[in-house]
Amino acid sequence: MTLTTELRKIVESQIDQVIKGIEHTFSRIIETHKITPTDLKDELDSLEETFNLLFQKWSLEILYTLQLKNSIGFSEIKKILCVNSRTLSDKLKMLQKHGYITRTVTVGPPLRVEYALTSKGKNTVLLALPLLYYSSAT
Amino acid sequence: MTLTTELRKIVESQIDQVIKGIEHTFSRIIETHKITPTDLKDELDSLEETFNLLFQKWSLEILYTLQLKNSIGFSEIKKILCVNSRTLSDKLKMLQKHGYITRTVTVGPPLRVEYALTSKGKNTVLLALPLLYYSSAT
DNA sequence: TTACTTTGTATACCTTGTTGTATTAGTAAA
DNA sequence: TTTACTAATACAACAAGGTATACAAAGTAA
Description:
2 copies of one chain form a homodimer. By secondary structure, the first copy, chain A, is mainly alpha-helical.
């Protein structure tokens, strides 16, 4: 059994309760609010930055890679994801700026730059996993 | 208290256990596998379609709108999200094709086309919520 | 000195997706 | 008949983002 199938299987076996929990929380809010289009627009605006940052190409791929490999260098990420240097450099900077990853330079010799997840980054990946595996299942 | 703050507060109060549950599941898998770069690459490839579909612009916004408004017409979505007709039309078609939403035409005057979430779409939104609120919090 | 590695940066091109504007089809109301 | 509304579609133009290619700094080894 491949890693993918195994991961998917375990995620699926627990997803129902996760969904039920969230749904309960959510419907409690909805019941007590009449949601106007304006509320909805505000709601979406407040989430927009996260949307844009997290869901652009490579962001989650990078975070997931870091989750599975702990600490990792620039070239290794590049090799695994087959991503352009420029693109990778930009994304890493952006993820670091927003507190998802740390960048540690080991001066020396040999020079080495290690990237790793912060706790925010780690939790973000963990929360993204059920979503990804659930939607890709069916 | 606005809807946004209230949602965020409730999500936050429960997010720790959700994360803990997922982490436990996840680390159980990791411990028993030595993950090679090839495994990782395969893993990411298998999720790529979901990445691309779900995380492109407007997809989650549309799903979230449907979640909050139940059944809704084309123009209403357009008005709420301020999205171009063409773009909205494309996205709705794509989401329908992949089983996230249903499209129901009421022929008789007046003509009306209703969009609503399938259970897959609904669960997808529910799973996306903690991720969005968590990452936008800090 | 020369060659090689790692970690990027610089430049310019190109693709993709999104938008604005206009248009169509069907129906109803004035 | 004209106007208005819903649900799209058509097409040109634009902007953002990603890519290829090349190159640079800093160090190591032969």
